[in-house]
């Protein structure tokens, strides 16, 4: 039996492909959906069907929904269970105590992390060729993004509810850096991310804002900040990049989609004539 979670990125491949596989982590859910045969998947995690979190939520509906606890996994007794390192440790301990194999995956923070996890899951499900194809598509998307950013370099601030800015040590920042764009949060001293005041956001003067929603509704105080007049005036739709959050939470096939969304937004913004002249990305 095998359990896969999000700890080490590089693991020795299994001698044989697992016939029956489960996942209890949202990111490994999506890798499993992209790399395994449908009849290999015996169940997916509790958030696999949530469209606000999972890019492949619709595809996940055809598979049983797991609780994320040990009980249903012990009943199913899969050969492999995919899980996250930062999920509930007691669950993984119980599974190991029952002689189930547990593979742990860390949360990816870079493009290299994403590729390593794709390779690892591809080996575990016995389809390394699918992993190679997924990585090749990701590399093509990276090439398109680099070409677009070379023509239109800019400082980008990834901003979400309550003024949260995504720091430099993150998957989203790696997406920007890989494309050749600069994460303005790094200039503000945010290594991992943090809450910035309205004044700090405006004073940072990024060339573009990256948002998860085009026109967020002021459903609560958290989203209301995004609709503040100062933000609206400085960053109208013509100076915003919109990439839905499910595209950037995890690595996998959706990361290529995220890069292409980035390219389309940059080119649209430039055609509108709103990219600052001389905008320059830094390392």
Automatic annotation (TrEMBL):
InterPro entries: ABC_Transporter_SBP, ABC_transptr_periplasmic_BD. Pfam families: Peripla_BP_2. This is ABC transporter substrate-binding protein. Keywords: Signal. The keyword Signal applies. It comes from the Bacteria. Residues 1-17 form the signal peptide. Residues 20-274 form the Fe/B12 periplasmic-binding domain.
